[in-house]
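Schema walkthrough. Field components (list of strings):
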Amino acid sequence: MFSELFDQYQWEAVKQSIYGKTAGDVERALSRSQRDLEDFKALISPAAAPYLEEMAQLSHRLTLKRFGKVIQLYVPLYLSNECQNICTYCGFSYDNKIRRRTLNAGELLTEVEAIKKMGYEHVLLVSGEANQTVGLEYFTKALDIIGPHFAQVSMEVQPLDEAEYSLLMEHGLHTVLVYQETYDRQDYKLHHPKGKKSNFGYRLETPDRLGKAGIHRIGLGVLIGLEDWRTDSWFTALHLRYLERNYWKTKYSLSFPRLRPFSGGLQPKVVQSDRELIQLICAYRLLDEELELSLSTRESPVFRDHAVRLGITAMSAGSRTNPGGYAVDTQSLEQFEIDDDRPPAVIAEMIRGQGYEAVWKDWI
Amino acid sequence: MLTIADKTFGSRLFTGTGKFGSLRMMEEALLASGSELVTVALRRVEVRGDNGTERPGGAGNGRAEAGETGAGLLDHLRHPHLHLLPNTSGVRDAREAIFAAELAREALGTNWIKLEVHPDPRWLLPDPVETLAAAEELVKRGFVVLPYIHADPVLCKRLEEVGVAAVMPLGSPIGSNKGLRTADFLEIIIAQSNVPVVVDAGIGAPSDAAWAMEMGADAVLVNTAIAASGDPVRMARAFKLAVESGRMAFEARLPLAGAGATSPAVASSPLTTFLD
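Field assembly_structure (string):
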């Protein structure tokens, strides 16, 4: 299990090591054909900032070599905003006084219809954590209702047990996204004071359970803004490398959600600039040619337009982060505000305009 | 230090006993190599049934020796630092391999086994299907299994899953001295393996051994290139140094050139100026 490896590293020591990297370390990392986690430290370090254009060119070439000129499009479908967790950064947090809603079978189909009209063949099902109402039984039903309409169904819900994942896979589940939020155990406690999510270790070992269940793809990431993003990203890379070695039949994807404002929200402790996010995206690509890198509508139109050529392989577009947001109840409260609100057709046109193909189902 | 199963090795050069001009020469060369693990064909150690016939195998063997008796061979391998790694060379399928391994355990008092299954007597190429089947059974029977295989990354993971102690992918056909013709696949194997990777077969020169070590292999196994050289003792020493130097370079994080290496010049259309 990853926790055994994880426990061998100290947050502060890793952080110091990253901040101690020099221009020489960065140049060495750039010159290698196979890069290791020490190289990754150099590439995400402040010392790599002057090498950004070089990293971008390299990331562009490696991505082209592996993926070709394609960007895969997907869209989230929020099933429910019920949640028993308190998370300081989330609009659905238990202590946030909002109207709670869980979509029923008919409502799911209404949302599915609206999403299909936009052209999507790949949908990401999202929920809070409310095991009584939005538990395993609800998920299997939702998959049975939604699955037949899509080529690919992904999920981003509470961590589950291995057997539960196996069952959901029988109902058509293809991908699970589970973000650690932060790998700093102390900080994690501060941001998740209550609810099942406060169990750091159970969340940390979720990708192991997914790997053992034989899931097709696992999505990893941290919430950028909670802690030092460089250190958190290095632990993400450590996790990724561990998983790739142990669950080698599974594909991996990464996301880089930056903390966005929401109703009653938390201010980021650490602000990552656009320049730094590009550095991080390129560093991941230089570490791992095969990795799928995903960018959500949290980011601005200008940023997303340019990211197409920088190493990104998947994007959401036209996203609504509230249950029923596409058709059933378009006014309900969102999990977070999106920045790029252009409709999917416009995003697809933007992608084509750069000489890339927009892919509506995941065949990459 | 390299650890495989219950043993720790100071030397990352593994050796063999075939093709030497004499047992004395072999012994001297093995000592000069600093090697702590030497593979011995079970066929070569006299293990005979009651009726006096040789047990498994029979086909010609790239690692076969020049006719000394088995007892004599073992006498020349009795050094405290030298561990024996019996191999199943000569067997053609899983059934024969398991039988040979059991004999080796009995005869040599070690549960370590280098699993070699090559049904083809000409190129001595390993059979992946039989090797995987034999490995699974031998692990269940308590053997420390080191399978000799093609540089096939998927096979390596499958073997890892059934519990082998290391994998031994080949660099090129055994005895060919052609070097690391499988380099691209060895890189993948090394990148994703959770067990030690020992590059076996085809290493023709110390530079090949150094390259394998620079790449991150945990050890190499060299036999023909030492035994069939003009001066096996000197050549053994050359391999010792090459393996040490290659390992040191790997640990010092050698910049490797290759397809993914840095761009020669910044392309005409910059990608990051939108950030300015």
